[in-house]
Automatic annotation (TrEMBL):
Domain Phosphofructokinase: 3-276
Species this protein is from: Ligilactobacillus saerimneri 30a
PROSITE patterns xrefs: PHOSPHOFRUCTOKINASE
This protein's UniProt keywords: Allosteric enzyme, ATP-binding, Cytoplasm, Glycolysis, Kinase, Magnesium, Metal-binding, Nucleotide-binding, Transferase
GO cellular component, as recorded: 6-phosphofructokinase complex
Binding site for Mg(2+): D104
Positions of ADP binding: R21, A22, I23, A24, R25, K214, D215, Y216
Protein's name according to its UniProt entry: ATP-dependent 6-phosphofructokinase
Active site (record annotation): D128 (proton acceptor)
Length: 322
């Protein structure tokens, strides 16, 4: 193995750049050439590929959000013919293995390449924290901290105006952001896709709070359940809460990555090169109990699912104002 390719794909997440730097630096340290691929799988098929060994400013990207390799939607990569075109480009540039940083869709692309015989490794990079085989994904911690900061600010206003705010955070299929941010900010209710909820019971809890002197409230809801606006409309049917709906949206993705995300990205990037040097590929790597792990990428995606720690909901219920 002489050359490796590096790609970011799907939604951007803070820490991706740190992972790119770690992969490239670890490859160079091992005497390999590192090639960056711009615009994800679209750039791969189009041959938007460049040698990163000459870049002298890699160390300056660790504190930058987003991805210097960019990203792009490319549903056409689901087609076998398009996948083969991607492999042709990799071979044209003499690239022997590919490291893909991204979420579920990005992993499926790497899985397709693996099935076609091209050595690929997936690194979990998504704010949703919804990748099987790892406790945490790159960007999750930063996104949670962004949400915590926003929720703290909203709580100040809620308290000042005796209002109830429904705050929508990202997470279509996984409620991890809502869970962690909600527990961290003592939310009155957390609503996620992984567990059924009773909006009437939530309204009754808020009314009970009023009787005991708490005349404001915060409800954190994952986008995969419904929009904040729709939840507010339903909530208002059970009482006069003077409620407001807020959607944090894409502010959760960007910004300076936390130390935790930077260290995780550095460890995973270095680990990917270590595995490739050992002749291993077709893997999804991650972290479990603070230990780096690697699993067969095909088995991981086809036979395993991410598990959200819903016990945090029970914790929040026990600790909330009553």
């Amino acid at each position: 193995m002489k050359r490796i390719g590096i790609m970011t794909s799907g939604g951007d997440s803070s820490g991706m750049n740190t992972a790119v730097r770690a992969i490239a630096r670890a490859a160079m340290d091992a005497g390999l050439e590192a090639f960056g691929i711009n615009y994800g799988y679209k750039g791969l098929v189009e041959g938007n590929i460049f040698n990163m060994n000459s870049l002298k400013d890699l160390d300056t990207i660790v504190n930058r959000g987003g991805t210097i390799l960019y990203s792009a939607r490319f549903p056409e990569f689901a087609e076998r013919e398009t996948q083969l075109k991607g492999i042709e480009q990799l071979k044209k540039f003499g690239i022997d293995a590919l490291v893909v940083i991204g979420g579920d869709g990005s992993y499926h692309g790497a899985e397709k390449l693996t099935k076609l015989g091209f050595n690929s490794i997936g690194i979990p990079g998504t704010i949703d924290n919804d990748i099987p085989g790892t406790d945490f994904t790159i960007g999750f911690d930063t996104a949670v901290n962004v949400c915590v900061d926003a929720l703290d600010r909203v709580t100040d206003t809620a308290r000042s105006h005796q209002r109830h705010f429904v705050v929508e955070v990202m997470g279509r299929g996984a409620g991890d952001i809502a869970l962690w941010a909600g527990v961290a900010t003592a939310a009155d209710a957390i609503v996620i896709p992984e567990r059924e909820y009773d909006i009437k019971a939530i309204a009754e809890h808020l009314e009970e709070n009023r009787k005991h002197g708490k005349d404001y409230g915060i409800i954190v809801i994952a986008e995969g359940v419904m929009s904040a606006a729709d939840f507010k409309e339903q909530l208002d049917q059970y009482g006069d809460f003077d409620s407001r709906a807020i959607t944090l949206a894409h502010v959760q993705r960007g910004g300076v990555p936390t130390a935790k995300d930077r260290v995780l990205a550095a460890r995973l990037g270095d680990y990917a090169i270590k595995l490739l040097l050992e002749g291993k590929g077709g893997l999804a790597i991650g972290i479990k109990d603070n230990q780096l792990v690697a699993h067969d990428i095909i088995d991981t995606l086809e036979n395993h699912k991410h598990h959200t720690d819903t016990t945090l909901l029970d914790l929040n219920d026990r600790l909330r104002f009553k």
